[in-house]
From TrEMBL:
GO terms for molecular function: DNA-binding transcription factor activity; transcription cis-regulatory region binding. It comes from Chryseobacterium piperi. Keywords: DNA-binding, Transcription, Transcription regulation. Signal peptide: none annotated. Residues 13-73 form the HTH tetR-type domain. Residues 36-55 bind DNA. This is HTH tetR-type domain-containing protein. It comes from the Bacteria. InterPro entries: Homeodomain-like_sf, HTH-type_TetR-like_transc_reg, HTH_TetR. Pfam families: TetR_N (PF00440). SUPFAM superfamilies: Homeodomain-like (SSF46689).
Length: 208
């Protein structure tokens, strides 16, 4: 979930972060439909007009909360990846982190989806799709940087960009599939082997 607010932010940035954090907590507790702009303003200790300075409506606020969530996930992934030294371990660390997922993030998504009725699912489908696309793009950008770092340091040769794009699409799609199936007891012990196999396949193609 959205992390603690950095003390280096300006007053406006601090207030915006407080609004996002508060909205996220209320969404998780009550569901999106039941949380109004007034509710968020009251919880933050500000007027409703203060919220409208940053977000023009509830939909924009919800989307901003989800974008913040994506950004936090990417920052966490980057920290995990760069604890490792070589490309293989970095990609494997990425796979492990994505499949296991953040408990806080998972609980938030589960909570809001559980409280969505069919009308809300339809209403917010475009926002959720945009968030999915943003996550895919951010993850791809991060992994391209990891690969590029290995090229710059001479650990691997330059790889055709189209090949990299295809590899990363397959990798990210496969990770999502493994994560989905790993909740089934029959496959719960297979995800680590799957992550290792994915890493080996990606490395083999990059180095070929």
């Amino acid at each position: 979930m959205i992390s603690n607010i950095s003390p280096s932010l300006s007053q406006e940035e601090i207030l915006k972060s407080q609004i996002l954090l508060t909205a996220q907590e209320l969404y998780q507790r009550y569901g999106i439909k039941k949380v109004t702009m007034d509710d968020v303003a009251k919880a933050v200790g500000k007027t409703r007009s203060a919220l409208y300075y940053y977000f023009k409506n509830r939909d924009e606020l919800f989307e901003a909360v989800m974008i913040s969530l994506v950004d936090e996930v990417i920052n966490e992934l980057q920290e995990i990846i760069y604890q490792e030294e070589d490309l293989e371990k970095r990609i494997q660390a990425f796979c492990f982190a994505k499949i296991k997922g953040s408990e806080k993030t998972r609980s938030f998504i589960t909570a809001i989806e559980a409280r969505m009725d069919s009308e809300e699912r339809s209403k917010y489908s475009d926002i959720m799709w945009n968030i999915h696309q943003r996550m895919m793009h951010s993850e791809t950008t991060l992994l391209k940087k990891v690969i590029r770092d290995s090229v710059i340091t001479g650990k691997i040769s330059e790889t055709d960009p189209n090949t990299v794009d295809t590899l990363l699409f397959v990798l990210l799609s496969s990770i999502r599939g493994i994560r989905r199936e790993s909740v089934i007891e029959t496959y719960s012990n297979q995800w680590e082997k799957g992550a290792v196999m994915l890493t080996e396949m990606v490395l083999e193609k990059i180095k070929s």
